[in-house]
Amino acid sequence: MFPQRRHTSRIAATDLLARCTDGVILKRNMAKKPNTAAAGQIRLIGGQWRGRKLPVPNSPGLRPTTDRVRETLFNWLAPMIQGARCLDCFAGSGALGIEALSRYAGSATLLEFERPVAQQLEKNLAVLNAKDATVVNTNALNWLARSGTPFDIVFIDPPFRKGILLETLTLLEQQGWLADEAWIYVEAEVEHGAIPVPAGWRLHREKVAGQVAYRLYHRDITPNAGEEDSEQEQ
């Protein structure tokens, strides 16, 4: 008789093992994969298209707003988003504009300079059968320089370190792109510090995630609005 060979099982370090006293494996639970979209994708996190993943083309400087930041932002906007007319000034992946549509915004206009990126946005909107969505392949500053029609919510997430944020804010205010009580979301580099905004814009919420500072402003040009807010805070 040959001596009985002892067999050993090689288990990945990430496995969780439950063994009985004689060494027999009773159960193996594989480590869970994180629930995040793969590179080159965004994942919609709320509303009618929750969980849908959309492709994003490789493009220099393209920096989709992260799931965590979007979750916070749209919690802030929850009372205002339904039926709102939205403008996404530097749409890129569409993470903000399409997320707004998923959460039942009334309409969204997405501005994107890079043609391949704009074409992918159009394809993604077609796949979702999104209604009242418009992609404009344009330079955002040139588009905003003309006289506008008011939007209720505006998303501003420009390419970092290009020096175009302040001009964008000025054009939105001066050219009539903002409703009287519009909400304006701004992403900027942390090192940018405080942002000088037009008169009548009040900081509603702000947070920092890594190297990104994100803020939500409320535009209120109602006479004595600031005085009323001060009285309520006292």
SSE arrangement:
Blueprint: E1 16-19, E2 25-29, E3 41-43, E4 53-55, H1 67-76, H2 78-81, E5 85-88, H3 97-102, E6 107-112, H4 115-128, E7 133-137, H5 140-144, E8 151-156, H6 165-174, E9 178-189, E10 201-209, E11 212-219, H7 225-233
Parallel strand pairs: 5-6, 5-8, 6-7, 8-9
Antiparallel strand pairs: 1-2, 3-4, 9-11, 10-11
Family: Belongs to the methyltransferase superfamily. RsmD family.
EC number: 2.1.1.171
Catalytic activity: guanosine(966) in 16S rRNA + S-adenosyl-L-methionine = N(2)-methylguanosine(966) in 16S rRNA + S-adenosyl-L-homocysteine + H(+)
Notes on the structure:
Keywords: Methyltransferase, Transferase. Its EC number is 2.1.1.171. With 234 residues, the chain is α/β, with parallel strands linked by helices. The chain has a domain of 154 residues: Rossmann fold (3-Layer(aba) Sandwich), CATH 3.40.50. The protein is 25% helix and 28% strand. It is built from seven helices and eleven strands. The strands form three sheets. It has a seven-stranded mixed β-sheet, sandwiched between helices. Strands 1-2 form a two-stranded antiparallel sheet. A hairpin with a 2-residue loop joins strand 10 and strand 11.
- Biggest sheet features: 7 strands, mixed
- How many E-type strands? 11
Distance between the termini: 92 Å
Helix fraction bin: 10-25%
Task: Tell me which CATH architecture of the domain at 66-219 applies here.
Answer: 3-Layer(aba) Sandwich
Radius of gyration: 24 Å
Q: Going across the biggest sheet, name each strand in turn.
A: 7-6-5-8-9-11-10
How many DSSP helices? 7
CATH homologous superfamily label of the domain at 66-219: Vaccinia Virus protein VP39
- Class by SSE composition: alpha/beta
Sequence of secondary-structure elements = EEEEHHEHEHEHEHEEEH
Mean pLDDT: 83
Extract low-pLDDT stretches. 1-38, 227-234
Say what the CATH topology of the domain at 66-219 is: Rossmann fold
CATH secondary-structure class of the domain at 66-219: Alpha Beta
Morphology call: globular
Please state roughly what percent of the residues sit in beta strands, choosing from under 5%, 5-15%, 15-25%, 25-35%, 35-45% or over 45%: 25-35%
